[in-house]
Amino acid sequence: MLNKGRTEEELFSFFEQKKEEDLDYRFILSSMCTLPHPIAVKMHDMFLETNLGDPGLFSGTASLERLLIERLGTLFNLPAAGGYATSGGTESNIQALRCARKSKKEIATPNVVVPESAHFSFKKACDILCLEMRTVPLDSMLKMDAGRAAEIIDKNTVCLVGIAGTTEYGMVDPIPELAAIAHEQGTYFHVDAAFGGMVLPFLDRHIPFDFSVPGVTSIAVDPHKMGMSTIPCGCLLVRDPAILSPLNIDTPYLSVKQEFTLSGTRPGAPVAGALAVLDYLGVEGMRAVVQGCMKNTWRLIDGMDTFGIQRAVTPDMNVATFVCTHAPDRWKVSWTRRGHLRIVCMPHVHRDRIEMFLEDIGEMYAR
Ligand SMILES: *Cc1c(COP(=O)(O)O)cnc(C)c1O
Known about the structure:
Blueprint lengths: L7 H14 L16 H9 L12 H17 L6 E5 L2 H14 L8 E5 L5 H9 L2 E5 L9 H7 L4 E7 L11 H11 L2 E5 L25 E4 L12 E5 L10 E2 L7 E2 L9 H38 L12 E4 L11 E2 L5 E4 L6 H15 L2
Parallel strand pairs: 2-3, 2-4, 4-5, 5-6
Antiparallel strand pairs: 1-7, 6-7, 8-9, 10-12, 11-12
The structure holds pyridoxal-5'-phosphate.
The site of pyridoxal-5'-phosphate (PLP) has 14 residues, from helix 4.
């Protein structure tokens, strides 16, 4: 601590300098986060002091959280779905595995079956919950091989996980086949749609991944990615609200008697922001955003192709990956574990940015 406080001007000049050290979103092509929608920023400001960890004190904000879950449940074809707002995909996945583990207390050596493409949050979740993590190889399209999943799942499996929109390649696992395998084994089936949950419902092509698929037990979705909310806002949705009940613990001195959430104090501001974006844009508006991102993804893939840079795979969503070893310096891109160049065409990655990037990389690779 400083012994004597600083003036506001001193603070501003220091914090502004720090802010300038951050990268500018206009050059960030590697992130699944994006600039929040202006309506989210406004509502975030309005709900800045709210704490969903004590919902009896903030009953209006708590009802906005229920509305957000209801909107997403409806989007995922189950308006009566249960759930709550998390800090993001990591917490949603941890909590889903907790629910799954609790549903099979009798198993002494529990395991979880995930695809090789699973997000690293499953490693954290399995570590915390002392679960063995078994990984299933991918097929040539970099989707979970359902046949191999059926071989690897066993009577000690407490959860099968499918990914609807992989972080690295934007692929959707064969959710209906995986759901059938989980059902046959009597196992909890969690779909990680942290990224894809706000993309897939708005594509022209129908890709099944949600509660309309029998056997899907829970879904993780992150409004703070394609939902353009402020950070942090994820959601965990469950087919039956009772699925969360085993997580309940008693909460003395709060306005509610029990809670099933992982965090205690929870921000209401990004939840208000997330709901505001959905209600401001509606299905039509979200469709326009997502289709714009898909159009840019295809422009990028086609543009790269003209330089002889091949796509690594044809993505189901707005994640483009390439067989390519170098990218122009001023752009922040990322590289997959398999060594492919990866670009996420988020809402802030406008068409002119794609054209600028293509121009830059064209100079490096032009034949
Ligand atoms: C981003 C992502 C996560 C993790 O979400 P955080 O909000 O970063 O915790 C989990 N799974 C998938 C598929 C993701 O894309």
